[in-house]
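Posting this for the archive.
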Amino acid sequence: MAATFGITCASESVGLALPLSINGMLQLLFLGAGLVGLLYALVWIGMLIHCIRFEPDKTFWLWLLVVAPFPGAIVYAVVRYFPAADWRAPGWLQKFTRGRELSRLAAATETIGNAHQFVQYGDALRETGQWAEAATAYEQALRKDPAHLPALWGAAQVAAAQKRSADVCRYCQMILERDPHYRFGDASFIYAKALFESGEMTAGRTHLERHCQRWRQPEAVYLLAERCATDGDHTAARQHLQEVLRDINGSPAAIARKNGRWQSLARRLLQKLPKDA
């Protein structure tokens, strides 16, 4: 009799526990699905805002995002957003995945210790978002060779990321004195931006005008147009904006997509200029 009662109680307890565990699993599944849905909704909103602000071919992509939110946002991100943003994995993820490489490069600075090894180590640190450590590595490279162009360039990039405009100007001046065409104008361009950030507007515009005569990057020409508009030189601003649009429209489709932001900004600023400009 006791044994029968024990079995009955055990079966009843199992019968009660089983539905509870199923309910718990269903609740977790619904909670997980809700979180995934919320994250996807945020991604969709982000892609929609990006499309409205920067996408030159808005009609098709807005239609896709509105009519087919899933997988429209994913398609837009892969085809338009990431290529235009030149997206790369975040620094913390690269730091995790490149840990062995960083250890190897750090060991090379100790065993060999030439400027080249410190620059390689500094580049890897910069790419993984370790700005202070990268700055130290470039400084050590410059102690070995004060005229080492890759070390000066790396130090300038770190200073730009840390908003140290005076240091950017100093490093870029040293680079441009040795090679005015270094990195196909990249050093020249961040030098112009550093001049603006330092409040040297006239010098920045003068340098950027010379820069755009050699290298016609859409971003550089747009910033020059923006500076001209701020200075009240609306005729020059309009001319530069039309050059941006003409260059982008005449470029291959992949390059035009990548520069879609500057195309959109150029059109917007062109509309704001006085009609008589």
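Residues 1-18 have pLDDT under 50 and may be disordered. The longest helix spans residues 2-54.
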